[in-house]
Design brief:
Number of helices: 10
Structural class: alpha/beta
CATH architecture of the largest domain: 3-Layer(aba) Sandwich
Number of strands: 18
CATH superfamily of the largest domain: Alkaline Phosphatase, subunit A
Shape: globular
Order of helices and strands: EHEEEHHEHEEEHEHEHEEEEHHEEEEH
Helix content: 10-25%
CATH topology of the largest domain: Alkaline Phosphatase, subunit A
């Protein structure tokens, strides 16, 4: 059996609903829409949360290590095998470009080739500091330079250059990884995408609010001060227009990558994956960032296409981003290490089942380890309801949402008598999941 290649694409801040084909937001994404039509779209993919205000760091760490949130420190541990590292050990040629944000040493373990690597978290999209491939694996800061061009296009060009070195007859399969800094702020889409969306024509989301109804402990964090308090409708519409512009521009460049893949005759034997490291508020619930447990921040796009992937399937099974770790290893015919906390999606891809996880546990705290006096949030979600716990300065707030009736999480049912038993059931499920995961707040 021919082992598949992998083209893995991950964005920064792309929320689950901002895909044109899903019909939830008025954003133009023809490439993503075609990818969904040609493959499988997982509509209930989540991250597990974060132990840092920089949510991307643990999120990408969980993806690469296959470990759960509380077992994923920064930097990535040396004693846990990383996904590209394992693929490389099992005969794959590994290439990477774009954002890493999980230290130089771990990057060197993963990729035998690279170009235009960004080791930071965020930067001016037109002045991205990058490193070329370093065979020694040191990637010294002294050799960092400013890339010439817009970040998404710079990274896409690097990926296209790599794909142009490959052909179907190659003995070694490849794992090619591109990590965009888009649509993360600064939200500065290049022409013509900067004028693609008129803020005056943007519809505010149903859960837009001038301010969050209570303190969740993130009011002064960097993401939240990108817009004023209270949130003004015109200001939020401008942010959304620029956010959509960056997504549409990224969609365009991904189209160029996929065209190259197919032109090289590689599409038939390549599993294409597109996802994001987390979502984003941009005015929903009065929040701008992703340091919260609402679905707009915890849910992510996840699209797969290629050999062994059903065509035209929208799968609503509850799953985590870290479930890709054992999935790709299994598709590659490589052993999955015991350290992996993820559950493979291969049964879903075979359409042998439409169930995956019974619950999604999520956590947010701005500090690694025990949050002590720092604010924190915990949540548990099943196929119908979500329960959120928020603790700030010792004060505890609970929320309950019926996601089937209220997908935008606008009606808190925590005090509704009809839901009292459901609240207790979910609290018990939350406590059990926290104990199983060694939650530091216990």
């Amino acid at each position: 059996m021919t082992r598949p290649n992998f083209l893995f694409m991950i964005a920064d801040d792309h929320r689950h609903s901002a895909l044109g084909a899903l019909g939830a937001e008025a954003v133009s994404t023809p490439t993503f829409d075609q990818l969904i039509a040609d493959g499988t779209c997982f509509t209930q993919a989540h991250i597990m949360g974060s132990t840092s205000g920089a949510v991307c760091m643990p999120s990408r760490g969980m993806l690469m290590s296959g470990c759960g949130l509380f077992d994923t420190p920064d930097p990535l541990p040396d004693d846990v095998p990383l996904l590209p590292e394992l693929l490389q050990q099992n005969g794959y040629r590994t290439f990477g470009t774009g954002k890493w944000h999980n230290r130089r040493g771990s990057y060197a373990r993963c990729f035998g080739e690279s170009g235009a690597v960004f080791f930071g978290g965020m930067n001016d999209q037109y002045a991205m500091p990058v490193n070329d491939f370093d065979p020694a694996g040191a990637y010294p800061p002294a050799e960092t330079y400013i890339a010439d061009g817009y970040s998404t296009t710079v990274f896409s060009d690097e990926m296209i250059n790599f794909l142009n070195t490959r052909c179907p007859e190659d003995d070694e399969p490849f794992f090619a990884y591109i990590a965009f800094t888009s649509p993360h702020d600064p939200r500065t889409p290049p022409p013509p995408f900067d004028a693609m969306y008129d803020p005056a024509e943007i519809e505010l989301p149903p859960n837009f609010a001038p301010e969050h109804p209570f303190d969740i402990g993130v009011r002064e964090i960097r993401d939240e001060v990108l817009a004023g308090y209270p949130r003004g409708e015109d200001e939020i519409k401008r942010h959304i227009a620029d956010y959509y512009g960056m997504i549409s521009q990224m969609d365009h460049d991904i189209g160029r990558i996929l065209e190259t893949l197919d032109a090289r005759g590689l599409g038939e034997n390549t599993v294409v994956v597109y996802t994001s490291d987390h979502g984003l508020g941009v005015g929903q619930h009065g929040l701008m960032g992703k340091q919260n447990l609402y679905d707009h921040s915890m849910r992510i796009p996840l699209i797969m296409r290629g050999p062994g992937v059903p065509t035209g399937l929208q799968c609503g099974a509850l799953l985590y981003l870290l479930d890709l770790y054992p999935t790709l290893l299994e598709l590659a015919g490589a052993p999955v290490p015991d350290s992996a906390a993820g559950h493979s999606l291969t049964a879903l891809l075979r359409e042998a089942t439409y169930m995956h996880r019974k619950h999604i546990f999520s956590a947010y705290q701005g500090v690694f380890g025990h949050p002590a006096g720092a604010p924190y949030q915990r949540s548990i979600k099943d196929e119908r309801n979500k329960l959120i716990q928020t603790v700030v300065d010792g004060a505890e707030t609970w929320q309950l949402f019926d996601l089937a009736a209220d997908p935008h999480e606008t009606k808190d049912l925590i005090e509704a008598p009809a839901f009292a038993d459901r609240v207790e059931q979910l609290k018990e499920s939350l406590r059990k999941r926290q104990a199983r995961l060694n939650d530091p707040v216990l």
